[in-house]
Amino acid sequence: MAEPSPVLLETHGALAIVTLNRPDRLNSFNEAQHRALKAAIDALAADPGCRAIILTGAGRGFCAGQDLSDRVQPEGGAAPDLGSTLETFYNPLIRTIRALPKPVIAAVNGVAAGAGANLALACDIVLAAKSAKFIQAFSKIGLVPDSGGTWMLPRLVGEARAKALTMLAIPVPAEEAERIGMIYRAVEDATLMEEAMALGTRLADAPTLGLADTKVLIQKAFTQGLDAQLDDERDAQRRLGRSADYAEGVRAFMEKREARFEGR
Predict the structure, then answer these.
(1) Which helix (H) or strand (E) holds 167?
(2) Do residues 41 and 7 lie in contact, with contact meaning Cβ atoms separated by under 8 Å?
(3) Which CATH code for domain 7-204?
(4) 117 with 134: CB under 8 angstroms?
(5) Domain boundaries, the chain
(6) Do the strands 172-173 and 133-135 form a parallel or antiparallel pair, or are they unpaired?
(7) Which residue from 43, 65, 44 is spatially nearest to 134, judged by alpha carbons?
(8) Across the chain, what does the average pLDDT equal?
(9) I need a surface site. Which of 153, 195, 197, 257 has the fewest CB within 10 A?
């Protein structure tokens, strides 16, 4: 019997749903899941018909990070090269999501631990079921947060809280994560996907080019000064002012109707 696909992909018009599908392992990553997820994201990035993406997990977890059974050092054997794992799999995935010119929503349906937590935080908007938890579990096995965790977490919650959460591996329930600004919203478990779908549909119907530039500008704001940011805003407005979506948006405003954006 064939093994089930480690990543599922479904589309609803311009909205795509990508589901990590190793529920028996809390969707922790092995190489097959890494390759399948990267392939799915790359395909959606290249698909002009896709204008928004939801990333979620099958079963009772979002993603428990790395499947450690793939990284056990055999007795007397050589230690695994974890840097190579990051360079080959995790880092390209995080870079792709951060650079993707369309919005990515994480619908966190259960535990998000280690690299799984940071995969969620790399997404543009994070919705989480109230039963979900975010855990920077790396210190429990003698490692540092990876997959962008040391970059994203301090920017979201501040240096002091980020150090405590990572050094002590403190689980953060979804409602607390919302309160401290780690995620956008915590919602009832039963309505998580309904709310994610509604949000995803709204974004898929929005002016995609403008959303893409908004994403880039906000991410740049943490690493450059005001003068450079003002210049980048100017350049983006110049470019977007020539787009079909801008023309449609202005016409719709003047005609007092809903705009019909096409993402171009």
Answers:
(1) helix 159-167
(2) no
(3) 3.90.226.10
(4) yes
(5) 7-204, 208-254
(6) antiparallel
(7) 65
(8) 95
(9) 257
Judged by phi (left if over 0) then psi (alpha if -120 to 50, else beta), residue 65 lies in: left
**What global pTM score does this model have?**
0.94
In this structure, how many other beta carbons lie within 10 angstroms of the beta carbon of residue 45? Answer: 15
Task: In whole angstroms, give the CA distance from residue 188 to residue 117.
Answer: 19
The tokens describing 139, both together, are: 């210190």
Burial class (CB in 10 A: 0-12, 13-18, 19+), 91: middle
Instruction: State how far Cα 71 lies from the chain centre.
Output: 24
For every residue of 203-243, DSSP letters joined together read HHTS-HHHHHHHHHHHHHTTTS-HHHHHHHHHHHHHHHTTS
Mean pLDDT of 194-215: 97
Q: Which two tokens stand for residue 255?
A: 């005609």
Is residue 205 scored above 90 in pLDDT? yes
Q: For residue 60, which amino acid is it?
A: R
Architecture of the domain spanning 208-254: Orthogonal Bundle (1.10)
